[in-house]
Amino acid sequence: MGESAQDHASEVKGGPVKANPYNWPYNGNLKPDNTALVVIDMQVDFCSPGGYVDKMGYDLKAMRNPIEPIQNILKVMRAEQYPVFYTREGHRPDLSDLPPNKRWRSQNIGAGIGDPGPCGRILVRGEPGWDVIPELAPLPGEIIIDKPGKGSFYSTDLELILNMRGVKNLILVGVTTDVCVHTTMRDANDRGLECLLVADCTGATDIGNHESALKMITMQGGVFGAYTDSKQLLRGLKMTTESTS
Amino acid sequence: MGESAQDHASEVKGGPVKANPYNWPYNGNLKPDNTALVVIDMQVDFCSPGGYVDKMGYDLKAMRNPIEPIQNILKVMRAEQYPVFYTREGHRPDLSDLPPNKRWRSQNIGAGIGDPGPCGRILVRGEPGWDVIPELAPLPGEIIIDKPGKGSFYSTDLELILNMRGVKNLILVGVTTDVCVHTTMRDANDRGLECLLVADCTGATDIGNHESALKMITMQGGVFGAYTDSKQLLRGLKMTTESTS
Amino acid sequence: MGESAQDHASEVKGGPVKANPYNWPYNGNLKPDNTALVVIDMQVDFCSPGGYVDKMGYDLKAMRNPIEPIQNILKVMRAEQYPVFYTREGHRPDLSDLPPNKRWRSQNIGAGIGDPGPCGRILVRGEPGWDVIPELAPLPGEIIIDKPGKGSFYSTDLELILNMRGVKNLILVGVTTDVCVHTTMRDANDRGLECLLVADCTGATDIGNHESALKMITMQGGVFGAYTDSKQLLRGLKMTTESTS
Amino acid sequence: MGESAQDHASEVKGGPVKANPYNWPYNGNLKPDNTALVVIDMQVDFCSPGGYVDKMGYDLKAMRNPIEPIQNILKVMRAEQYPVFYTREGHRPDLSDLPPNKRWRSQNIGAGIGDPGPCGRILVRGEPGWDVIPELAPLPGEIIIDKPGKGSFYSTDLELILNMRGVKNLILVGVTTDVCVHTTMRDANDRGLECLLVADCTGATDIGNHESALKMITMQGGVFGAYTDSKQLLRGLKMTTESTS
């Protein structure tokens, strides 16, 4: 990276949440009316023994580390009445919405989508493995988006619901950092939504990918938005609450 | 990454193009009727002195390295009558399609979208900086997709045209690896398109991000498709041509 | 309408199903591999006493007339293994996907979406009124699309599934002719899908609107496709089956 | 229609513009910040001798009657600084975005899209016939949406731009009432946009279709929004201006 890019990025600008490469949100406008938390794919299949990620042979620890910091954020944001969204990756039981290349790849790696496993059929809606993990169970009234892909906007009603709610800012947590969280962040960003990824509330199947996914956000002055950690987010939310009460 | 994931990924499966983590395309069905080359954002603003990337202070070399290998691929794929698509990132002159956070970030880093620069207004349609670089100029009949975002599907007619042509496979080249190329690959992949990124025909503003963008593709058995280099692609295309002639 | 338009439209062209303004499909390519039946919104709320349409004060007869001809088509198309899709209009129980103007209008007319009624909460997913009527109950393996709007493509996975199946032609039946059937036909047509509306398998809250919805299809040489009746459709399907067996 | 439906519809509710079946907009919130005028397809190909509609043999009078009332609306809405959008139906010169069935139908009726005609190649971008008619020429800074289909949202950046502007209400004029105006109204309505069609500012290739297109709007309490005429619209806009100045 050139010198001038680094210099610009290090200036303190933006909103109440200390973040990288700018303090978030860019326009300082952060409140329950315009900001939602999105908890991405914290499902048994991604986070628990016997699920899809476990069957592929990845270490589950990186998937489970975000649980506690997400709980901390949920507690505060629920209390402050920020809307909470959940997403679940999964396919129809007949697999009619499963692209054949996605199926083929999962079979190659020993975790065929739709095949039976310890948590039921892998990544299939209605199976035990497809549920959100009990540690992060959605409350009644929280919105669950079922998606067939990695992004949360494609083939779902997420955009409609965000528009109806007047949501302008998204706080993104969940797994995996570089796949579903990042794809959702990119697609939201293209729609003009202002996005914040909370690093310790996310995890990836490879630690290098996790770190690079964070760094990618900071290019071009925040090409997909910004990232922070849960401590800074909670501090920023607290400042916001106090200043408006 | 666990052992079993690595073992599965190293098995030789798939199509005529040697690639990582599987030989591409997965089903071996590669021909001009179902496969398109997509040249992403090889514009003056991204690849030439005085443009957007240069003004942000990044090294242009990584943007220009892909030019020659893309020329090699274009030569062969045009001769074999594969359809060629180009994308250009850019905004309407009135900036009505420019999200305010995207503008703010670009201003912060010293390269405000819509502001005047040595190549005209930055990232604005119709300006000199927005053109595809002359080294890779599209031929008459090649399709250009103008997009306001990082992904090539959002707010464009790309999906319609691909469907009308019966395209099932996309070969992706251009810049930057981790931003517009990757976002397009992710959005194409969610739609069931089978994608191949050609590593030496892409470049990023940060070499670590470039390498991580490649590695991310290989997770989960090829979560977004596969990647290769131009030498392997040309070898695979040649095999395909010979076997069908 | 001018003379020359009428003359052109009356020429016999197109596929095996006699239809207006051309015989369908335009390219003669009609088979279970590329053609799907879509049964639109034949739900208790639209077709049965106590439901949404009944509460608005419309005559249910027009909603129920299509039941028998749809049964006839289902019998034949299921036997020939054409894929069958169903759509259901309905909203999330928290009404997060219900535009406020849609709610306001429904309240004005005395049938507030989300309000309790004899068939449960009106147009809410999971309620008795939201089910497909038992006379046309989907079989296991038939695909149900839940949609928040009048069109079947917006905020749904219909396009993904049609693309995965290679569907090019849609045969449209259900209610109401001028609202959900027509909006779906228009949106499918814009995507290049070849559409046929089966007139006696549809119905509207106003007979004049029903007839005009048919006529609109015939403008500009078939601006949204073509329409026929169930007798002609069954004849065309039979010809197709015999010629390929 | 049943009695109760009619009774409800005739009650006076809603906003400052007298309309049918309710006064528009439903929530009374009408101002340049949240409301746009959309002038649909008032192109030479639809409205002038030698264009697409003329070649199909339809009477051009119905296409030209809306010109004067649209001019009246434009004058007032421009003065009050309401944003003005234009749409143009048209295809890429290589016809890559033209579905083959659409082409086939247009050829059948003697006005093949892409074929040469007195106004240039029919419905092709860049040709004389594709231009907006000079009587209604867009002013600099007014937004033009080029669309390949009948709806204005599919394969375009319209939704992005409306969201960036905070537009919630659309006032629709242009041609043809039952095809492009209605499809756009339906697709906007599904997205929660509050729509008003101005009847004398629209026209159809068949007068019966025009009238039915209006009536369809009024079903279900205003299933796609409401319709009015230019006199009532101007009166409502005037009331709005006076009450806020």
What would your notes on this structure say?
Four copies of one chain form a homotetramer. By secondary structure, chain A is of the alpha/beta class. The first copy, chain A, has a single domain, classed as Rossmann fold, CATH 3.40.50. Helix content of chain A is 37%, strand content 15%. The first copy, chain A, has a six-stranded parallel β-sheet with strand order 3-2-1-4-5-6, with helices on both faces. In chain A, α5 packs parallel to α10. The N terminus of chain A is likely disordered. At the B-D interface, α7 of B face α7 of D.
Uncertain stretches of 5 or more adjacent residues of chain A: 1-10
DSSP strand tally of chain A: 6
CATH topology of chain A, by name, is Rossmann fold
For the record, give the distance between the C-alpha atoms at the N and C termini of chain A, rounded to a whole number.
Answer: 42 Å
- Structural class of the helices, strands and pairings of chain A? alpha/beta
Give average pLDDT of chain A, whole number.
Answer: 94
Oligomer: homotetramer
Shape of chain A: globular
CATH superfamily of chain A: Isochorismatase-like
Give the strand order, joined by hyphens, for the main sheet of chain A: 3-2-1-4-5-6
Reported CATH architecture of chain A: 3-Layer(aba) Sandwich
Chain pair sharing the greatest interface: C-D, 61 and 62 residues
List the domain count of chain A as a whole number: 1
Sketch the major β-sheet of chain A: 6 strands, parallel
Q: Roughly what percent helix of chain A?
A: 25-40%
* Order of helix and strand elements from N to C terminus of chain A: HEHHHHEHEHEHEHEH
- β-strand percent of chain A reads 15-25%
User: What's the CATH C level of chain A?
Assistant: Alpha Beta
- What is the tally of helical segments of chain A? 10
Domain Isochorismatase-like (chains A, B, C, D): 35-222
InterPro entries (chains A, B, C, D): Isochorismatase-like_dom (IPR000868), Isochorismatase-like_hydrls (IPR050272), Isochorismatase-like_sf (IPR036380)
Keywords (chains A, B, C, D): Hydrolase
GO molecular function (chains A, B, C, D): hydrolase activity
